[in-house]
Amino acid sequence: MNDASARLDARADALLDTTSSLLRGLVELRHKHRLTQAEVAERMGVSQPAVAKFERYDANPTQTTIQRYAMAVGARIKVEIIDDCEDEQVSPDRISQVVNMNALGTWSRAREVSTMSYSTEYQVTRV
After folding, report:
1. What is each CA distance from 92 to 3, 5, 68, 99, 102, in whole angstroms?
2. Residue 79 main-chain phi, psi, to 5 deg
3. How high is the pLDDT of residue 108?
4. Coil, strand, or helix at residue 127?
5. Residue 111 has what pLDDT?
6. What is the secondary structure of 29-76 as a DSSP string?
7. Which of 58, 59, 101, 123 is the 20 to 30 Å CA partner of 107?
8. What is the DSSP letter of 23?
9. Is the pLDDT of residue 127 over 70?
10. Which of 74, 116, 100, 75 is nearest to 12 (CA)?
11. How many CA atoms lie within 13 A of 60 on its CB side?
């Protein structure tokens, strides 16, 4: 594997870690505020099973669902976009392969993460 390909793999892993940390942080905040899934569901206008599905290790929620959950638990989300594209010569096929492998790998990596504590690097601010 060349350097550009290794950087691409590292970028994919970092994106996965960021998403996992975001979801864990939101669930942690629900626990901190002693909110039940049913209470969050009521605030979101969805069913309790929908909230349970959001909190599963293999969840793949939309941005809108993440925002609604954050509002329901009293959180703001701060996003930082980092330009991580150097003058790399990685083929479009390799990028596609990493993107697809990362999407499929989400489930197995998330299982590892789901057993960890809910500590997070995100700063969550009560609204």
Report:
1. 16, 11, 35, 10, 15
2. -115, 140
3. 45
4. coil
5. 39
6. HHHHTT--HHHHHHHHTS-HHHHHHHHSTT----HHHHHHHHHHHT--
7. 123
8. H
9. no
10. 100
11. 8
Give one word for 34, left, alpha or beta, with left for phi > 0 and alpha for psi -120 to 50: left
CA atoms within 13 A on the CB side of 101: 12
CATH superfamily for domain 3-81+88-114: lambda repressor-like DNA-binding domains (1.10.260.40)
Cβ contact 75:26 at 8 Å: yes
Query: Helices H, strands E: what count in the chain?
Result: 5, 0
pLDDT at 95 over 90: no
**Poorest-pLDDT segment among 1-5, 49-53, 60-64, 101-105:** 101-105
Task: Tell me the one-letter amino acid at 32.
Answer: K
Give the per-residue pLDDT at 16.
83
Q: How far apart are the first and last CA of the chain?
A: 46
